[in-house]
């Protein structure tokens, strides 16, 4: 039997993402977001929902670009800190020890220490309510070679991403391999 929990922002898991942008003075900034994910395969796109009150919101609208970094679980303290302070008041790169890297392809920075990054141009915005959905076309995916498999693709176990539990406001890691997609269900 299932118990109704009412309308809530619950989906398991949600990713922990570091959104990179430049403010009007070209200061690099990061914010932590959990409401995001892939939303289209052709063109490759990612959607992330931000509140207008965030410092990053106007920067992304103005520059029409952002980056999305996937921090590893060894960076959970930095990712949490980035989500608890405003770039209006704090230089988050300096405070976390992350090194800002200017993208060659989009007008946004990313943290060099984050092993997997997506560089996006702003394609669409949709005001939903408290949040606005930003759809970014993925112009490039960048990965440290240390987290690549022999075939050149990113290895989720080496990236070791942080996932967020919205019901309990907690961070977790990923678990073991369960089976091959588009195959295990056919047996």
UniProtKB/TrEMBL annotation:
Signal peptide feature range: none
Keywords: Flavoprotein
SUPFAM superfamilies recorded: FMN-binding split barrel
Domain Flavin reductase like: 9-164
Keyword Flavoprotein (UniProt): yes
Required cofactor(s): FMN
Keyword Disulfide bond: no
Domain of life: Bacteria
A UniProt-annotated Pfam family: Flavin_Reduct
UniProt xrefs under InterPro entries: Flavin_Rdtase-like_dom, Flavoredoxin, Split_barrel_FMN-bd
Gene Ontology MF terms: FMN binding; oxidoreductase activity, acting on the CH-NH group of donors, NAD or NADP as acceptor
Similarity field: Belongs to the flavoredoxin family.
Protein name per Swiss-Prot or TrEMBL: NADH-FMN oxidoreductase RutF, flavin reductase (DIM6/NTAB) family
